Amino acid sequence: MAVSSVRWLTVRCRLCLPLSDRRAGPFGQAPSCRFYSGSAALPKAEGADVTGIEEVVIPKRKTWDKVAILQALASTVNRDTTAAPYAFQDDPYLIPTSSMESRSFLLAKKSGEKAAKFIINSHPKYFQKDIAEPHIPCLMPEYFEPQIEDISEAALKERITLKKVKASVDMFDQLLQAGTTVSLETTNSLLDLLCYYGDQEPSTDYHFQQSEKSKELEEATEENNEKSKKKAGHQFGVTWRAKNNAERIFALMPEKNAHSYCTMIRGMVKHRAPGQALNLYTELLNNRLRADIHTFNALIEATAMTNEKFEEKWNNILELLKHIVAQKVKPNLQTFNTILKCLRRFYAFGKLPALQTLREMKAIGIEPSLATYHYIIQLFYHYDNPTKGSSLVIYDIMNELTGKKFSPQDPDDDMFFQSAMRACSSLRDLELAYQVHGLLNTGDNRKFIGPDHRRNFYYSKFFSLLCLMEQIDVTLKWYKDLIPSVFLPHSQTLIDLLQALDVANRLEMIPQIWKDSKEYGHTFRSDLKEEILMLMARDRHPAELQVAFADCAADIKSTYESQDARQTAPDWPANALNCIAVLLLRAGRIQEAWKMLGLFKKHNKIPRNELLNEFMDSAKASSSPAQAIEIVKLASAFSLPVCEGLTRKLMADFAISQEQKEALGNLTALTSDSSSDSDNDINEGK
Fold first, then answer.
1. Contact, 285 vs 300, CB < 8 A?
2. What DSSP string describes 131-166?
3. Average pLDDT over residues 356-373
4. Is the peptide bond between 146 and the residue preceding it cis, with omega within 30 degrees of 0?
5. At what angle do helices 452-469 and 472-482 cross, to 10 degrees?
6. Residue % of the chain over a pLDDT of 70
7. Residue 515: which residues within 8 A CB-CB, separation 6 or more?
8. Which residues are 19's β-sheet partners?
9. Distance between CA atoms of residues 41 and 58, nearest Å
10. Picking from 11-25, 253-267, 325-339, which range would have the lowest pLDDT averaged per residue?
11. Four-CA torsion 96, 98, 104, 105, nearest 10 degrees
């Protein structure tokens, strides 16, 4: 019966499932019924040819991910280039407009989450109602208080599980005093706790603090400054204290296995005690025990921390690799990434070993991660001299990675795109930058862009390279696409864009750039304002554009005035005064321009000769000898050499009275006397 049922099922599937070479049934219509394994048997249709028909293989049932529908829906929606990043879409009033505000927003949001978690865990009895369906464990309160009060090994295990460092040590000591033998497994668990937290009570935000500490120590190590490392270690409390509870309990253990030694070694390396870790590894070998691969990874890191020459460190790393082979331990991705992470501190010496390491990991079938290539880029494209003899490595890397999709494998995977774009910027290679950006937008690789400050760094370097080497129309398209929906620009980014507009002779965009810069919180950036004023005032422009430039200059002038009100000792830059005055003058805003001229005396700033000549031409056009005399007085007040030329021009172009001529003669005499005095002082000094 079973065999016949199978045969009938095969025949039914052949008859009813359409094939490429047989689209219709025997009567010219496709069969409309669908057969299942439990359906009743039907007779074959007359004239149906079932011989020689290829058997249909029904695919196995596919198991979909829980968020597959959400991913499918998300793939139909493109990024809104006019909206703020999703992380900031909380309250329109609170949407940040600058990189500093965005950092403050994210920190405040994280602080609020931690505060809420603290309240829930501190008062769990008020948060017992579970309204989430299905149940979400992370939204419910966590219980951190031990429930077992008596002195027993079960109480010790409970305190270890709750990560109570001091309470676990006290319970262990009480058990020893009571004569109770603690099992080797429980003692190893206690060592795990002590070594992981460095014999210190963990805080509620321990993991967040650890990421910040590792960054500080990383920077100190990059600088190769021992004082920096000691300062960073002392400041964050990450050093291994001698004769701490971990060492004491380890010494009291009547029996030690490989796990005990491995835990101690990894704890010592983590908390900056490499010498003790290497000595303990020697003791492990003397006891005929074997280390696991995680301990070898820590030992490789400890070897790089020692105060030895680069060649000696590399030889020690090679010796550890021989131990891995001898002990038949299989290396993993972290083994090679740890080697490369250490080699990047070896500068030029580490380049050849790094390439050998990369070839070796590929030879044994270990696929490199993004962090692997990040370390190589950092080694070959050092910050001090990124272009010397290293221009081909990143091209080989990008040719190998183009089109690939990555999954998280190393904590430093999110640093690859930052280092790759830095190398592109150093090499001034726009095509390579496009290649890196294309890899970022492949699949879900965008998740590896890193936190907010790394994303801003990446896009700032990318956009600055566009401003330097791309056509201006393409650069402006990128500007609209990236800002502010992806990142908020720094003032230097806007200065790069202004310089690109200057090269392409598109200065009519400057008022819009100034408007955007105010929205992004750069109203009081003096370098940006002076760059804008310099570009607008450098040449003469058509009347319509000159009016727009004057409006922009007047707006910038108001920012200096509001800045004066906030400062106790206001200071106007001389360049800004000159540019604003000439822009207002060229646009026909004569009264405002003359008011600007009075600010030179007020703030003791020297006007340029070109500015005084333009004011003289304006006075001539309006036939105002009084204004011309004021210009000569201003030049005389600062003892400018141009004063004599202005006086002659005044005499020739204006009709003045005898009194005004005598006054001008006195001013000229005073100017010449002061000039001769200054020349004498210079000669005496020589």
1. no
2. --SS--GGGSPPP-S----SSSHHHHHHHHHTT-HH
3. 95
4. no
5. 160
6. 81
7. none
8. 22
9. 19
10. 11-25
11. 20
